[in-house]
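Q: How would the C-alpha cells look for this protein?
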Amino acid sequence: MAWPSEAGSVARHRRRSVAARPTLRPRSSFQRSTFFYTAQEVATYSQVREGLLTVVTVTGTLTGDDVRYHWYIDGVHVAMTTLAEYAIALEPLEQAVLVVIETDNPDFDFVAEAPTGHPARRTISWTRSTDSTTAYYVVEQEKDSAAWVEIGRLAQNDEWSFRLLTPRLDDLASYQWRIVPYDAADNAGTASAGGLDIQAGWNVEPILRTPDAPNFTAKLNTDTTVTLDSV
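A: Here is the predicted structure in C-alpha cell form.
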C-alpha cells in the first residue's frame, strides 16, 4: 500500500500528568505587566473530584469583565475561559501539572508564555494511504527495542489525516511508533515509519516526565530562618 511523501509523520503533542488528585504546581514567579495590561499565574487552587472529572477552581487577583483564564496541562494550552473554573478528565491514578494564567490582555500570547511541560503521552498523526484498498490503520508502539504492540486502530474514511493519543508512557523509557495500513481482508500493507516531528525514517523518542530537581544551597540564619539560593 502506498503512502504520500509526507505520510507517517508523528506530531509532538505536549501533555503532562492531572490525577485522581492532580498535582497543581503554579509558577508564582511569573508576571508580565505593561502600562495597560497584566498577566500572571494564579497561586490559589481548589479541586473537586467527580467521577473521571477533576473540577478545578482558581482564585485570582485581577477583576473586571475583561479577565481571561488560560489553562495549561503539562505545558500545553488546553483552554481559555472567562470563568475561573475548568473540568479535566483524568483516569484513576493519572497525574498532571496544571498552570493557570490570568490576564486582562486580549492579545495575550498563550504560546510564547506557556510553562515548561513534561508530557506523559504523545499524539501520533499520519496522512492517509493513497491505496484505495486501505480499510483501516493499526498504530503500533515499541518500547525500549522490545516487540511491537498494537495501541489502537482507526478506520479509513474521507479524512486526509488521522490522530491517535498514546497510552501513558513510562518515565525514562524510549519509544517508537509505526502505522500499518490493512485492507478489508486484513492483509497488512507497508508500515509507515513513524517518529516525532519527522517526515521519514525511524526516530526514537526518549520520555522525560520527572525533570531533575533544581540545585540549591540552604543556610540556617541566626534568627532560625532558612535562606535558599539557586546554584
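The chain is about 0% helix and 45% strand.

Confidence is low (pLDDT under 50) at residues 1-29, 195-202.

Upvote if useful.
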